[in-house]
Design brief:
CATH architecture of the largest domain: 3-Layer(aba) Sandwich
Helix content: 40-55%
Number of domains: 2
CATH topology of the largest domain: Rossmann fold
Number of strands: 14
Shape: globular
Strand order of the largest sheet: 3-4-2-1-5-6-7-8
Radius of gyration: 21 Å
Order of helices and strands: EHEEEHEHEHHEHEHHEHEHEHEHEHEHHH
Distance between the termini: 17 Å
CATH superfamily of the largest domain: Glycogen Phosphorylase B
């Protein structure tokens, strides 16, 4: 049984659930459908999904969500206890209390899946006193977990220093097949639709526009490189700023949100991928972004900043260029280096090789199955 807060399984949750099903485990996803937008029960891609719909709320409620979470927790405990699970896999801190209560009631095994450093992530939205309270809350609840899963090697190292249970890193890596299925001709057709002529460099940002991403300086680098095309796909808190910035430069373009099925061809169509995080954001140290592994799977070099897991992976795989400060000038300087085709090709090959060996969903699935074998044997 996997417990998750969003009403739709995110890619990480769904990948883990499918891996466990393939290994012979029976998996039920229990999640919170805050606006009752989807069926209360359904089978999706072979997974049984139960949605809690009796507790109405909305995303983006910040601290006001505290009025609704306890009601969701009570409903989730009641539902999952009736399933008599052998193990409860809690995604993110906002579901870990449910797992703790279920372990008390049913003696099930408890796995805490920390997608990110949750208190650090919430520092973008909550007052400091509430963030500190979340950190204390996590330290208390995590002591009752039988195993901890993280997406970050930095977070893994911190947990190992303070806790005795097994801690493993399952990165947000990609299924290689959709990326390998995109032909050079298909990528070229997309470039033509975007109005990017042969021989012109296309630098892309593809991802969310949350507050921790450095996006406007990336767009402003277009002023320094008028012969380079800057394209962004995504949505989120910085959308207004992104739209205003791209409107100032004829070689900068915003295209809206991309569906998951469209990601491989867009990554393959780009020459260079950009992804940098705000250094004053506490969670930057723990961020192992999907964008990085998507660039690696597509064989495209990345420009990133030297922080946490992001910097660790880029440096170890030698799959991109790292900058110290994500200013328009430093971003432009890195792009100028990557105008050399041989350098782009070598960094892209390095990333693809790493993706094919260790940074892929098959490797992650093997680790997860081994963890559950250890917990249930």
């Amino acid at each position: 049984m996997l417990l998750t807060n969003p009403y739709r399984p995110d890619p990480r949750v769904e990948r883990e659930a499918r891996a466990l099903v393939k290994a012979g485990h029976r998996v039920t996803l229990v999640c919170w459908d805050r606006a009752a937008e989807l069926p209360p029960r359904e089978t999706h891609n072979g997974l049984d999904i139960i949605r809690v719909q009796s507790v109405r709320s909305a995303y983006g409620s910040g601290w006001r969500q505290l009025f609704y979470l306890p009601r969701f927790w009570r409903m989730a405990v009641r539902i999952v206890a009736g399933l008599q699970p052998n193990a409860v896999h809690c995604h993110d801190l906002d579901t870990l209390f449910v797992g703790w209560r279920l372990k008390q009631r049913t003696a099930c095994r408890l796995v805490y899946d920390a997608h990110e450093h949750y208190p650090a992530m919430m520092s973008l939205y909550l007052p400091r006193v509430m963030v500190n309270t979340l950190a204390v809350w996590e330290r208390y609840l995590i002591r009752h977990a039988d195993a901890v899963v993280t997406a970050s090697t930095v977070l893994r190292d911190e947990f190992l220093q303070t806790h005795r249970m097994p801690v493993i890193t399952l990165g947000n890596f990609q299924d290689m097949a959709p990326y390998q299925a995109v032909s050079a001709a298909e990528a070229q057709v997309l470039r033509a639709k975007l109005g990017v002529p042969d021989g012109k460099l296309l630098v892309a940002y593809i991802g969310g526009f949350s507050k921790n991403r450095i996006l406007v300086p990336f767009i402003e680098a277009a002023r320094l490189l008028p012969a380079v095309e800057f394209h962004l796909w995504g949505d989120g808190a910085q959308r207004t700023e992104v739209e205003a910035a791209t409107a100032r430069y004829p070689n900068a373009h915003y295209h809206g949100w991309l569906g998951a099925d469209d990601l491989p061809i867009h990554f393959r169509a780009a020459d260079v991928i950009y992804y940098c995080l705000r250094l004053d954001y506490p969670g930057a140290q723990y961020n192992a972004p999907n964008t990085l592994s998507q660039a690696m799977a597509a064989g495209r070099p990345i420009i990133a900043n030297r922080v946490g897991d992001l910097g660790r992976i880029v440096s170890a795989a030698q799959c991109g260029l790292l900058i110290d400060q994500a200013t328009p000038e430093q971003i432009a300087a890195a792009i100028r280096q990557l105008q050399l085709p041989d350098l782009r090709r070598q960094l892209g090959k390095n990333g693809l090789r790493a993706a094919q060996t260790d940074f892929n969903t098959a490797a992650v699935e093997r680790q997860l199955i081994e963890l559950y074998h250890m917990l249930t044997e």
